[in-house]
Amino acid sequence: MSEQSSKLIIFFDGGCPLCVKEMRHLRKLDEKRQITFENINEPDFNQRYPQVDVAKANQYLHGQVSSGEMIYGLDVTHAAWSLVGKGWMIAPLRWPVIRWFADKAYLFFARNRNRISKLLTGKERCAQCSID
């Protein structure tokens, strides 16, 4: 499926071991190939996606749905997991009241993902991890 016909494009940090691990898992589950995965650290990223501010995409997850609308943070995560049939697992994080707390927790995670990655994987960053 091409990027134009993709239901979701996820713009992820390819230097973050935890981010890459999640993208690998999503790619494996995405049997219908509805998701396009784009590493924001690729040399030609800015030319291909000028609408995405790489500095902001490095702060929190960005995604683009087929209509062209940009979505962010846990909304991207929920959209991706919904496309692979597992949205119910994180749907409560989008419910009113819980959503506010979940978004704050996500932003904490996003800011500290390298330290958290080091704790969980032993690796803070990788030069460029591949999801293939």
Strand order of the largest sheet: 2-1-3-4
- The radius of gyration over CA amounts to 14 Å
Helix-strand topology string: EHEHHEEHHH
Approximately how much beta-strand content do the residues carry?
5-15%
Helix content: 40-55%
Q: Outline the low-pLDDT stretches.
A: none
Number of helices in the DSSP assignment? 6
For the biggest sheet, the summary is:
4 strands, mixed
Mean pLDDT across the residues is 93
Total strands: 4
Outline, from the CA principal axes? Answer: globular
Number of domains: 1
Q: Find the structural class using helix and strand composition.
A: alpha+beta
Oligomer classification: single chain
Termini Cα gap: 16 Å
Summary keywords:
132 residues; 6 helices; Thiol-disulfide oxidoreductase DCC; globular; DCC1-like; alpha+beta; protein-disulfide reductase activity; Thioredoxin-like_sf; DCC1_Trx
Sequence-ordered SSE layout with sheet pairings:
Blueprint: E1 8-12, H1 17-29, E2 35-39, H2 45-48, H3 54-57, E3 62-65, E4 70-72, H4 74-83, H5 98-111, H6 113-121
Parallel strand pairs: 1-2
Antiparallel strand pairs: 1-3, 3-4
Report on this model:
By secondary structure, the chain is α+β, with helices and mostly antiparallel strands. It has one domain (8-121). It has helices spanning 17-29, 45-48, 54-57, 74-83, 98-111, 113-121, and strands spanning 8-12, 35-39, 62-65, 70-72. It has a 4-stranded mixed beta sheet with strand order 2-1-3-4, covered by helices on one side. The longest helix is centred in the C-terminal third of the chain and has 14 residues, at 98-111. The two termini are 16 Å apart. The model has no long low-confidence stretch (mean pLDDT 93).
